[in-house]
Amino acid sequence: MAHTRPSITGIPHPPCTLATIAWVGVRELRDAVGTRWFALYTLAFAALGLGVSFVSAAGSGGQGLSSFGRTSAGLINLVLLVVPLMALSAGASSIASDRERGMLAYLLAQPVSRTELLLGKYLGLAVALLSCILLGLGLCGIVVGSRGGSLDASSIIWLAGLSLLLALGMLATGMLISVVTRRASVATGTAVFLWLALVFGTDLALMAGTLTFRLRIEELFALSLINPLQVFKMWSLHAIDSTLDVLGPAALYAVEEHGNGLHGLFALCLGLWILLPLALACVLFSRKGAS
Amino acid sequence: MTRRTTPEIARLPRLACLARASVIVATMAAPRGVWAFHQLADQAVDHAAPASRTPANAGPSARHEPGEIGRRIAAASPGDTVIVPAGIYREHLLVDKPVALIAEAGAVIDGGGSGDIVEITAPDVTIRGFVIRNTGIDLDKENAAIRITAPRAVIEHNTLEDILFGIDLREAPDSRVAFNRVGGKRLDIARRGDGLRLWRSDRSVIESNTIHDGRDAILWYSKGIVVRNNVGYDCRYGLHLMFSDDVTITGNEFSRNSVGIYLMYSTGVEITGNRLIRNRGPSGYGIGLKETDQFSVRDNAIVGNRSGVYIDGSPFTDKRPGEFTRNTIAYNDVGFTFLPSARGNELTDNNFIDNIDQVAIAGRGSLDANRFWKGERGNFWSDYTGYDQNGDGIGDFVHESQTLFENMMDKEPKLRLFLFSPAQQAIEFVGRALPAVRPEPKFVDEVPLMSPVLIDIPSRAGSTNSHIGVVGLVMGIAGAGVVLGAGRLCPLVALTTRLASRRSPRTTAGEAT
Predict the structure, then answer these.
(1) Do B482 and A128 touch (CB under 8 A)?
(2) DSSP assignments along B170-198, one per residue
(3) What is the pTM of this model?
(4) Could you tell me which of A239, A227, A218 has the C-alpha nearest to residue A152?
(5) ipTM (interface pTM)
């Protein structure tokens, strides 16, 4: 027998990799749900979502006309602001703060491989984020359902699913930051900086580029695919309202060029934002273990 | 009745055979009951005719050989009413005397995929109740289901299917086209024909028709037309006026076309009480006006288009201001698009509700030559931020539209790609906070209305969505369940791992120590 696997927190150790990951994940989920950031973000997300739903329900009344995409536009905007911040900071603080508190050394002393630990934490946080998104958007759904609004059931499911994809990507990126930085404060700072860059920086830079370099529409569209937030936004509009042409000539070009392939294109972009950072984080984290 | 499918018959000129087929159709047409009859008629024709299936290149002259209906017309005297019993008539029809052709239910004229189907060269002809289908697809020859070249035709209650051009009036004034359904061939837009076309057909009435999957419904050089209560969808232009004066367009619904109503070079047009919904695509205007003069646009619902109203060089002269009153312009990407050439329009008592860009100037230019209020009446703007302290229904502050991002979008439409993003809002915020970058107001409404002007829009059954409440509830419960259950999950995992570990020799050994 190479070594035994003693139990932490009264839970017997799991026998195989998947079970180990699940075990770490559940532990992480339990920790995450108990923290202040989770409560804060969930509350903020739900409150803002409720606000958007109420306001847009109020705006569409009176004339018997449904508002096309007003509620969904508001919710997309909200998700763009809150979900990446939530996911990035959750990911960034995960490994780094454990390392700072000495928890990482303790965990790694258990018969848990580094990859298992990372993936387990990722899964646990992902479920925590999912529950936060479900709570927030679920409340919006209830409000829209009771007060009348333009959103229908399938679009809120789309929105929740796409928000989760966005959260997964941002969480993976956050964990990559967490792996490469030494201190938790640096990791969080980097995450917030990246959030600012993704939410405002890249878009503003692209706008400036459009105006100064007279980017052609195909270039503009291709460049906008780099930003996962833009991808999420375009995908949501495409899936919910199927009116991507609301986004002007570049989007019209995209619809004409790719047609139904747009779903696949957007999925590919968001998928890369999930897989690449996660794989890189795994490699870097386990290499650290070797040294 | 004989069924001769001998080679001799096959060698006869095609239209003789067609005629023979029609005879058989007509003789079989005795039994009542539409469906049974359809089958019989089909059978009959199929028996008769290898010839009727031969490629239809008989040419326009041969086309006028009379078929069954043709012979009935030949036998009728001017002013007669010809009742056509149910049946499928595979013939091309020439109506050259003033008769009324009234179809019994189930009478179908099938053009066999070639040429025009019904040609009317005599005045005062009525065509009522037919199904007319399957024209040719020759855009150069403009193959039409019904072509009229004489005045005072009445085309009513017909169903036109699978046709290139639908109803084509050429110099047919005082005609009436009503209660027809015109469905084009599902061709690429460039290969389609016009569902309805009027050419120099003054004082005609176009009423309660449904036109879909065509190119345009178009009026050329026709004065005093009334277009009332029609429905048009999935076309290029729902209704298109070229050089047509004194036209009244009222109570129509045009949806999902590239453009709902497009007026060009026409004078004296009234557009009232229409619904223009979700006309998107390359142009995407609810109503477009190009060099149109002396028009008024009242009481329309203009919803969900790419641009609600698009104004280019209208009004063309300064005889009368362009009038836009009591329209509801809602949820369009752009409410009103003005080209710099648009001068002298007056907008009062309209509802501007949640258009992403309420009023835009395409390119550079100013809206100074247009007015957004008159006397004590302005418009309702859903983005008005002022209040009404004295309760007179008029906002106490002027409404100025000046948002930085809108300005940028008007100048560079590519920037629309960044709509709904936080970056857009950052720019709006900067525009509000820093006077240095605040744009000049696009326009000013000095007496903005505090509440929408209610207009009577017949609303289609609104989508009541109780489903979303349920979905929201389920999502909320699921989310809450994860949060609350997270603590309790641990024992569950403990249980499963314990069970799993029993089966695993490696860890069983570990447990044992």
Answers:
(1) yes
(2) ES-TT-EEES-EEEE----GGG---SEEE
(3) 0.76
(4) A239
(5) 0.84
